[in-house]
Amino acid sequence: MSARTLQYAYFPGCVAQGACRELYLSTASLAEALGIELVELKKSACCGSGTFKEDSQLLEDTVNARNIALAESLNLPLLTHCSTCQGVIGHVDERLKESQANDPDYLSQVNGFLEKEHCSPYRGTTRVTHLLWAIVGDYGLDTLASAVTRKLSGLNCAAFYGCYLLRAQDTLPHDDRFHPESMEKVFRTIGANPIYYKGRTQCCGWPLSSYATSQAFQMAGNHIQEAIEAGADCLVTPCPLCHLNLDSRQPEVEASIGRKLCLPVLHFSQLVALAVGVSPERLGLDRHVVSTRSVLEKLGF
Q1: Number of other residues whose CB lies within 10 A of the CB of residue 172
Q2: What DSSP letter does each residue of 8-44 carry, written as one string?
Q3: What is the 8-class DSSP label of residue 97?
Q4: DSSP code per residue over 178-237
Q5: Per-residue CA distances from 213 to 41, 133, 208, 210, 216 (Å)
Q6: Is the pLDDT of residue 1 over 60?
Q7: pLDDT tens digit sequence for 99-148
Q8: What is the pLDDT of residues 205-242, one digit of tens each?
């Protein structure tokens, strides 16, 4: 399939439409620059970010079966730029496809609730993918390389995968859940230098922050310190919740650990969009709590 014909049913999630509006802007700008069409699922609902199943697995499955069915009705794969949404919706998709084969009564129960709400049934005919995997697996790194107009030469990027993208699903396309390389491959493709450090695949601490705030800040602080000590100019994350904990709460993290950090945190889409010619102004880089000025100056903006 030509890159110019790539089309997805776009599930933006909640955080990108609120606290991380720059992610919504940068994903749209990146897709436009690469010739990828995003058909936004305006009627989709919050995936639940893993909380629905604490009360009811059936609730989580039904809500997200509806989200997937919206993409199926368009005959398109569902794409999200949120690791948490990917983990939740992707795992529901796996579970419901397993039910089709081994527990059709359960799937009938889920679809029964959808029918009551006059929603299309879940059929298991599409896939759920993250923007990172769409770039690596569908668009392709060779095609991405040809789209680069400004190599990010000299920029030392430390990936922060987080946990949901890597380990929420039973199967992982285009990567290894314990030793991932997909983001580093993208960094090299756009001219940046990948930085490796211990915490790149660990939890950012966000899930703990509502009831164990100091521990969450300590986790985030440890990761940021490790990246700085490894030589990073910035962290790059494919997860808006990780971004909130690592960027918007970085001043609180600094106060908690008693150390100044000041490490910029970029969304994955922002970094790639810079390399394919999108201006910093269009990417909302001025919306970050930790200034991104040092990154832009190093790149000559």
Answers
A1: 17
A2: EEEE--SGGGTTTHHHHHHHHHHHHHHT-EEEE-TT-
A3: H
A4: SS--HHHHHHHHTTPEEE--GGGGS--SGGGTTT-HHHHHHHHHHHHHHHHHTT-SEEEE
A5: 34, 32, 7, 6, 5
A6: no
A7: 999 999 999 999 999 999 999 999 999 999 999 999 999 999 999 999 99
A8: 888 887 888 899 999 999 999 999 999 999 999 999 99
